[in-house]
Amino acid sequence: MPGAGTFREDFAASVVVALVAVPLCVGVAVASGVQAELGIVTGVVGGLVTGWFRGSSLQVSGPAAGLTVLVYEALQTHGAAALGVLVLAAGALQLGMGVLRLGRWFRAISVAVVHGMLAGIGLVLISGQLYALGDADAPGQTLAKLGGVHGLAARADWAAVLLGVGTIAVMVVWRRVPARLRLLPGALVGVAAAATVAGLLRLPVEKVRVTGVLEAVSPPTWGEFGVLASFGAAGTVIALALIASAETLFSAAAVDRMHDGPRTEYDRELIAQGVGNGVCGLLGALPMTAVIVRSAANVEAGARTRAARVMHGAWLLLFAVAFPRVLEAVPLAALAGVLLYAGWKLLPVRAVAALWRTHRGEAVVLVTTACAIVVTNLFEGVLIGLGLAIAKAAWETSHVHIEEVWEGEELCVRVLGNASFLRLPKLLDALDALPHDRPVRLDLSGLRHLDHACLTALEGWERTRTPLPGREGVI
């Protein structure tokens, strides 16, 4: 924790991070389909609970846009009462993974799958928030939302649309303002401007509904734990734990490159996230993950120790207790603008272009993962992406090469590399093309790997050839 020499820097950074976090916490909660206060509750837990752990000193946790899609789907499937149980179980799973030292394994996940996951989340987020931007009701499925966009203009409240677009414009322009003048984060400025305009002009647009923090908190009861017996709920828990953990640890790697302080201890960070999500589950709040936007703001604001993120949680708690009614002035369209901007930033347009020029297979995995998430759901889409990445890796590593060497009247055929069923058609085609009027000796001693399918096929092929008298094929 801080000493006298770092308190000033940590205190100032905590204020900046809290200001960044407020609109994001509220926006993620509204987009997830829960009360706005629950987003702030998760932010408070991310600071006051997770912030104390030593896993990553400058990384900041809270509700993230990356989990919005999964939480919304879970609420539609299992109901709002099950949210606390699902988040609590996901936290317990994360805690277990941290204790078993599985944090490092997350670095083995294909980067293309991770980028594809984020791109799919971005597309789903954008498709839903376009309707929120116009204060219009949205269809339930992502494909239906995308298909209905063409008719959205006729149903949209254009006053709300202008407020949301104005929020995005403020955020874009704010990034170009000189750093010395950017005392407040762009998202907060944009939302505040939209709220001011809506209030002064008395625009009849939808606004955030506030019930109060204590009223919003809803701890799960024993009866609600029965939902975990269903296969779908178990899949949701696994998806929450894995996606939150992957996003946290990839964020940690990015944050570590931004400062010269202590590096992240991945297993401890998983334990911290597990404890934090366990507390969020007990409070019936949203799940948390490390958020790169807040973490980057923390580093850029000059934070030195984890005290900055702890104090940011205290600021959020003070805001939720002292000024809850301020949220009622915020138009939903302004929050939609914030999330549309966040969703756009999740789309790795440059990464896809770069991969297509250098590693087209990786680009295909990325795009396929994103499309699968849009067509199915987040969990199934990621599984499809992982399966494709594994198949691609297996295909690329199963190289097999044939060398032909004449030894007198005998043709020696040496098979080199990795012979798996994936390359069996190519291998048999090459062997069948060999001369049929000469004896052939098959030498497999140069193979590093030979699976059963290839061994069986090669033995069958060799029996059809005519070796020199008294000589056998080398298997």
UniProtKB/TrEMBL annotation:
Query: Is Transmembrane helix tagged as a keyword?
Result: yes
**Membrane topology according to the record:** Multi-pass membrane protein
Keyword Membrane among UniProt keywords? yes
The principal localisation class reads membrane
List the subcellular locations.
Membrane
Q: Where is the SLC26A/SulP transporter domain?
A: 7-369
- Residues passing through the membrane, by range: 12-31, 75-96, 108-132, 152-174, 186-205, 225-250, 314-344, 364-391
Q: Which UniProt keywords apply?
A: Membrane, Transmembrane, Transmembrane helix
Report what the protein is called. SulP family inorganic anion transporter
Which organism does this record belong to?
A: Streptomyces yangpuensis
Q: What is the lineage of its organism?
A: Bacteria, Bacillati, Actinomycetota, Actinomycetes, Kitasatosporales
